Give the backbone structure.
Amino acid sequence: MDAFRLEIVTPDRKVFADDVVFLAVRGVEGDLGIAAHHVPFVTRLDIAPARITFPDGRVKRVAVSGGFLEVRGDGVTILADAAELPEEIDLDRALRAKERAERDLEKARDLEFKKAELALRRALVRLDVGEDRRSS
Ligand code: ATP
């Protein structure tokens, strides 16, 4: 498989930049798989792990908390609202965020409910991806 350049950036920092052969992400309209020579396009991303496959077959997951995916002729960029590699994730913090969001969900309504729901989803993705450090 041909490789392509993948960069994952947030408004604050560069999270990841390397040559990869496959990227699986969850767009707001569904799951997407990107290989080299994909047609250029832009889509919004959901809160979900991004799954990266390297040329040697290794796989790495990154916690992505929404943002945009841009596929260009010369590479792919994820501009994430927030993104963390497994080894960067503070599991205790994510657990606290999960518990806070669950408490908020019980009493919240409307906009507050939506906010708590999104916070819960970010925490769950971080807890999931953060577990990968055990196996890598
Ligand atoms: P919290 O309530 O713990 O702040 P959050 O979901 O509100 O969580 P975000 O607003 O998505 O946090 O992110 C703010 C910044 O903190 C981002 O830079 C993000 O990468 C980082 N971050 C959030 N949670 C964690 C975590 N558990 N481990 C490491 N970095 C985190």
About this structure: The mean pLDDT is 96. The pocket of adenosine-5'-triphosphate is lined by residues 12, 65, 82, 84, 88-90, 93-94, 97, 119, 122, 126 (CB under 6 Å). Residues 4-84 form a domain with the ATP Synthase; domain 1 fold (CATH 2.60.15.10).
